[in-house]
Amino acid sequence: MTTETALERHDVLFEVKDYKSGEKPVWCPGCGDFGVLSATYKALTTLQLKPHEVVVVSGIGCSSRIPYFMSTYGIHGVHGRSLPIATGVKMANPHLTVFAMGGDGDLMSIGAGHMPHAASRNVDITVVMMDNQTYGLTKAQASPTSFLGHVSKSTPYGSISKPLNPVLLALSYGASFVGRGYSAKANELSALLVEAIQHPGFAFVHVQSPCTEFNNTYSRYDEMVEDVPANHDVTNLRAAMDLAMDEGKAYLGLFYREERGVFEERARHFVEDVQPFDVQSYLRRFA
Asked: Domain residues of the chain, as ranges?
């Protein structure tokens, strides 16, 4: 789905600076999350979203600090709970643009149980997972997406666990929009985020966002990343899964998109069909 953006109409009210909180990011020099933050600023500017109508929810971790650096509403929640919080915000006010942003630990470890439910319900939120294959905030333990053989404080002899595949998981859970970006390609990532925000439903964007301090994978991903083939059918789930399972490449772009009703709209129609509960009549039964 493509629609004309505010910038294309030359109807510009907000600039990148209008989405900055004034707080300076405290990430390590070269951290991939800088690129994700920049891409998010650009995406919001492209769509000309009002800062007070955007909510960024995060959990715990280096990447989860992102709400502090944005002038939008932000909720820095507890570890692994960004998705249920974001779901609650969207259900309470469906007119808001809601993000759930976090890292591979926050979304693929302690918070992993929330992903299949939010995806299958098709809640209209944009999930941005910044994946650096390490626990940076707690100083270099292996994460659920660490490569086999990765040496860390928690795996001094090398990781022996097969890394989780976030894109493949999102596809299998029923996410209606699945894509991948790379923090070193902020412009391309920004364009993908614009599509994800515009998508009516659960949008999952996996971002390779290397940690320069504890697991610097820039060189590795510079060789692995490749654009999704131009002839890829984004409506073909099997084809999307095939791309996600290619261990020799980290494809960038849109893997899959499906149009189906969003959860909050279907839930609202259901509630409208239910008769209000008469508390007084109920209590009179016991009088």
From this structure: 16-284
The token duo for 139 is 């100083």
The structural architecture, per CATH, of the domain 16-284 is: 3-Layer(aba) Sandwich (3.40)
Neighbours of 1 (CB within 10 A): 9
* Burial call 237-267: b when 16+ CB within 10 Å, e when fewer: bebbbebbeeeeebbbbbbbbbeeebbbeee
Residue that has been written with the tokens 């940076």 in this structure: 136
Helix (H, G, I), strand (E, B) or coil at 76: strand
Q: Could you tell me which of 81, 89, 74 has the C-alpha nearest to residue 37?
A: 74
Over residues 66-108, the pLDDT tens digits come to 999 999 999 998 888 999 999 999 999 999 999 999 999 899 9
Q: Supply 23's token pair.
A: 């707080």
Q: What tens digit of pLDDT does each residue of 2-27 get?
A: 566 555 555 679 999 999 999 999 99
Q: Give the largest Cα separation in the chain, rounded.
A: 75
Burial class of residue 217, CB neighbours in 10 A (0-12, 13-18, 19+): buried
Residues 105-140: b if buried by 16+ CB within 10 A, e if exposed: bbbbbbbbebbeebbebbbbbbbbbbbbbbbbbeeb
Write the secondary structure of 9-22 as one string of H (helix), E (strand) and C (coil). CCCCCCCHHHHECC
Q: What residue ranges in the chain does DSSP mark as E strands?
A: 54-58, 73-76, 97-103, 126-131, 177-182, 203-208, 225-227, 250-257
Query: Helix or strand or coil: residue 270?
Result: helix
Q: Return the bridge partners of 251, or none.
A: 226
